[in-house]
Amino acid sequence: MDITHLKFNLLTQTAIVSLKNAYDQCGDKAAKESIIAAFKAVVQLHNDLGRHCGHDGKSENDSDYDPSEYCAAV
Predict the structure, then answer these.
(1) Cβ neighbours of residue 74 closer than 8 Å, sequence gap 6 or more
(2) What is the pLDDT of residue 72?
(3) What is the mean pLDDT of each run of 10 residues along the chain (74 residues)?
(4) pLDDT score of 1
(5) Residue 3, in any domain of the structure
(6) Does any domain span residue 29?
(7) Does 1 map to a domain?
(8) What are phi and psi of 68, to 5 degrees?
(9) Residue 4 falls within a domain, yes or no?
(10) If DSSP codes are grouped into helix, strand and coil, which group holds residue 9?
(11) What's the whole-model pTM score?
(12) What is the phi/psi pair of residue 33, to 5°?
């Protein structure tokens, strides 16, 4: 999935960028798995909040979304 198509707000985008930077700088496999879990949680929270407010933050590409692929690609 191309994450650039998701519509994130500023706080979500900040969290995503911070997690991406942590993932890039981390050499420990267990820590990287924790970062991926946090990444999934941020995206899920963003989507849940969007539904709660009447705005669906998901794009048509979310069905094939795998955060580990995103983290590995960056």
Answers:
(1) 20, 23, 24
(2) 55
(3) 60 88 94 93 84 54 53 52
(4) 40
(5) no
(6) yes
(7) no
(8) -65, -35
(9) no
(10) coil
(11) 0.58
(12) -65, -35
Tokens of 1: 């999935």
What tokens were used for 11? 């706080």
Number of folded domains that form the chain: 1
Contacts of 36 (CB under 8 A, 6+ apart): 23, 67, 68, 71
**Residues 46/7, Cβ–Cβ less than 8 Å:** no
User: Containing domain of residue 43, as a range?
Assistant: 10-73
DSSP-derived 3-state class of residue 11? helix
Contact 23, 35 (CB under 8 A): yes
Q: What is the DSSP string of 12-66?
A: HHHHHHHHHHHHHH---HHHHHHHHHHHHHHHHHHHHHHHHTT-----TTGGG--
- Between the alpha carbon of residue 52 and those of residues 1, 12, 24, 55, 60, the distances in Å are 24, 16, 32, 7, 19
